[in-house]
Amino acid sequence: MLVLLPLIVGCDGCRLNQGSDEDAEQLKQNLPDITSRPAQAYPMSRPDAGNNNQLNGAVKPGHWTSAEFTIRSNGEDRRGVVQSRVKVNRSRISLDDEIAAGLAEAKTPESIIVRRPAVLPKGQRRRLDTRLLVPTNGSRTFESVQFSAELVSNDTAGRYGLQDAGFAALQAQTYFFVILTDRPERFTRLQTSNWATPFRSEQEFAIKGDNYRIVIPPTQGVIPIAETALDWTSTAVLLWDDVPVNALTMGQRTAILDWLHFGGTLIVNGPSGADSLADRTFRDLLPIASDGVEELDTDAARSFLRSHNVDTDQSVAYATKTVEQNQGQIAVSGDARPDAMEVGEGGLLTEKRAGRGRVVQCRVDLMSDWLTSWQSYDSFFNSAVLARPPRAFSLSEPTAFMNPLSSTTDTQSDDVDDSANPTEDALDELATLPPVRQTFVGVESEAIAPSINTSVRFFSRDSRMPGRVADNIAANNSAAGKADPDADETKDAVADQPSALDTLPGEITNASDTVVDRNANASLAPWISPDVWAHPVTGIGGWKNDSPMMAWGREQLQQEIGVSIPDSALVFRSLLIYLLVLIPINYVVFRLLGRLEWAWLAVVPLAILGALWVARAAQLDVGFARSRNELALLELPKDYSRGHLTRVIGLYNSLASRYRVDFATADAAIEVVRLRGSDKDNEANLFGQIAPEMQFGFENGPSLNNISVGSNSYGVLHTEQIIDIDGPIHIQGSAPENKSDIDADGSIDRKYLTNDSSLELLDAIVVQRDAEGTIRLASLGTLSSGSRQQIRLNPVSNVVIPDGLPMGLTDWIQRLLSPGIVPPNSARLIARVETPLGELSITPDSKQVRSQTLVFAHLAMPSRPPARQDANLVRDLIRPRD
User: Beta-carbon neighbour count of residue 518 at 10 Å?
Assistant: First the structure.
């Protein structure tokens, strides 16, 4: 019996294992065919870095963004298509607003359907990404949007719903601040900074709007950030810490470079950031030519702190002592590049322009203890690093209690005062303050213009389109320095575009479209450009079908197409006349001729003549079935070979057609523009009402299907691409190897313009506006690829602007020469290209294609505003102890 015991135990063990396997198999059988996890919006934050109570992330209304979702097929291998869309969460929309607007039964704003392929091996969890245009609800704000998706299987034609996700909706002034780091715990200090989220005491009930949403993406595997600059417009700042550049895909690197040149701010954090960006792709953009590390110079640190110290801050001595006591602090060694600018003193912070954007490099770690313990740290980051205006803190009840600012001194004491350091007691007292007002110096309102928090913008989306002011430029030049040339810009806005006038030039609005006092303009003039208009919901950089440039393009295309859509009255009138001629008149004429039988023979020619007359009355050109007209704007950053191409495409049909648009690269986006007066989302024709569908991942670039254009009608498309022109258009000195593009006085006169691109530029004009506001022009004619021509600036009266250019380009060029949209100390090239740019195909083909592209190249950019410290600190508001 004892011999048989092991066998019995062994059998029991086998039976137990068999039971576990059977249970696991039974569990698998109980799983649904498809399981998924909620989508996550890009840029995605790691779980241990905080998510602002938004588990699925946040998006910015009116901006393109990327997102990812996770799917697993539990039953079998599957292939299919994932269809997704985003809609505004109606529960977050004020019902009072809907009733007031008569929209109680209005359809919930939602995006178009986006399709992407999905290949799902059995039992494997797959991460798939997609792109989407976050919808807007007019000028009304909302708090969140809902992402929904379903898998359409190829084999069974079954539909499997995926988990819904909710994304928070950022306000107009709020933008992402992305940090690439493998040590997220070091950056918690930034998440509580008063420049990211305005200071709020416990006695305040209102939630103040964020300026920045801090996001720290996970760095394991593919980093969840977008791969096209068109999806980076909701990001204002990228802080690069210790993540190597080769951890990013090539698409992500290119997207960051494009985003940077169109206004992004890249912060390189100390030695770790310099080492991470040693790749040649980014190395030449860094302000410091790094050659290693060295020990931090205490004198340089002291000078640096004093140059950025708030006048009421007495903690500079403590911060300096911390540096002295902690020997071995390291800093980036190497000389600053010739075109770099030192910010403050001590040489620890340097920045360099990259197109419109800035690369800010700090020789020391920005999260060093001796910096973060400094009470002026938030002021330093706000003004020196982010280039924002100086701020002032005050109590909403000034008579409550407040430290007098008379303690301000020009020279700080070197004596160490421990009481000047933030302690727990002091922080507790800050929390019990009455409501605190945080405003910019010289400004009464707490509202913040989106253009203060971000510099990312595209001319076709964010710039005003002034009236035709070429004849008034000379008058502006004579008045330069005596009056603000942009003060009366309002009357020059596009008259038929109400959205362009939501924010008047020089005014600032918050998300509720509250206009800030115009007296703030003088204080904020260095930070706010009057040529930029901000949408009350999307802010700056958002996708706009109603921008001034788009409005002008649609109007011009309608004139080019020459289509006048007939109304119902024409149909009834034509039918009535036809019947009168065919029956009573025809009968009377042949009855008088005595040949009544001929009246039957006359029916055929009368019918043909009637059809020709109706076609003429309806302005239907029977010479071709369809035509395509497009106007485009190619914006090129300074010294950069990639540009932003915006097209307004008009498609005209004599017979109904459905179109498909395909792009060859991923850096593209498209939307069908709803024409004014249309109350339907889809054009009703012989194809029925079929909504357009966007596709990603099927080919190299995106595509848009089911673009329906009815008979004797036209549709308008809005497309944007980032394209490469094989070389920059830039300014050189007298010698080709001389890269000094601007003299000490800011003039480009007598310099050489070099066209290293593949474009042949026609009717090229260079415009420069100096610091006094004077406009001067240089007419260069034709610039072929590889050519080089000297710039000779002349007064406006001596330059003849080409007249009679095709498709209204003369009017467009004259508008772009307006002083109101040319910032002081800047220079631009305006030229045209006759051939279509960008790899785009539209099917079916059009027999008649006309295209004109205006090239808008930045040659010189205004310098950044000077870094100015805050007027005081929040802790200055603490009640003085007796």
Answer: 12
Structure tokens at 429: 């007292």
Give the Cα separation of 128 and 118 in Å (integer). 8
Nearest to 729 by CA among 791, 822, 638, 790: 638
Residues 179-217 have pLDDT tens digits of: 999 999 999 999 989 999 887 655 555 566 899 999 999
Q: Which residues contact 694 (CB under 8 A, 6 or more apart)?
A: 112, 113, 114, 115, 131, 670, 702, 703, 704
CA–centroid distance for 119 within its chain = 32
Q: Of the candidates 416, 187, 404, which has an alpha carbon nearest to the alpha carbon of residue 324?
A: 416
Count of beta carbons in the 10 Å neighbourhood of residue 419: 10
Can you tell me the distance from the alpha carbon of 359 to that of 817, in angstroms, rounded to the nearest whole number? 29
- Mapping DSSP onto H, E and C, the string for 445-468 reads CCCCCHHHHCCCCCHHHHECCCCC
**Can you tell me whether residue 291 is helix, strand or coil?**
strand
Say how far apart CA 483 and CA 264 lie, in whole Å. Answer: 32
Instruction: Give the pLDDT confidence score for residue 629 in this predicted structure.
Output: 92
Running DSSP on this structure, what letter comes out for residue 641? S
> Which of the residue ranges 165-169, 608-612, 814-818, 842-846 would you say has the lowest mean pLDDT?
608-612
Rg, Å, the chain Cα set: 32
Mean pLDDT of 697-717: 88
- Provide the token pair at 775: 């406009």
**CB atoms closer than 10 angstroms to residue 751:** 24
> What is the three-state SS of 159-201?
EEECCCEEEEECCCCCEEEEEECCCHHHHHHHHCCCCCCCCCC
Report the distance separating Cα 265 and Cα 84, nearest Å. 32
> Is the bond leading into 43 cis (omega within 30 degrees of zero)?
yes
- Residue 25: what are its φ and ψ, rounded to 5°? -65, -40
This prediction has a pTM of 0.83
CA gap 388, 382 in Å, rounded: 6
Tell how strand 436-440 and strand 626-636 pair up: unpaired
DSSP string, 819-877: GGGS-TTEEEEEEEESS--SSEEEESPPSEEEEEEEEEEEEE-PPPPPP---S--GGGG
d(CA 41, CA 450): 21
DSSP state of 220: S
Q: Enumerate residues 6+ apart whose C-beta is below 8 A from 768.
A: 747, 748, 749, 775, 776, 777, 793, 826, 827, 828, 859, 860
Which residue type is seen at 406? S
Pairing between strand 58-59 and 78-88? Answer: unpaired
Contact 726, 741 (CB under 8 A): no
The confidence band for 561, taking pLDDT boundaries of 50, 70 and 90, is: confident
Q: Calculate ∠ Cα 120-126-131, nearest 5°.
A: 105
Closest CA to 82 of 168, 166, 136, 147: 147
Instruction: Name the 3-class secondary structure at 102.
Output: coil
**Lookup result for tokens 């000490």:** 744
| CA 151 to chain CA mean position, Å | 30
CA–CA gap between residue 225 and residue 254 (Å, rounded): 12
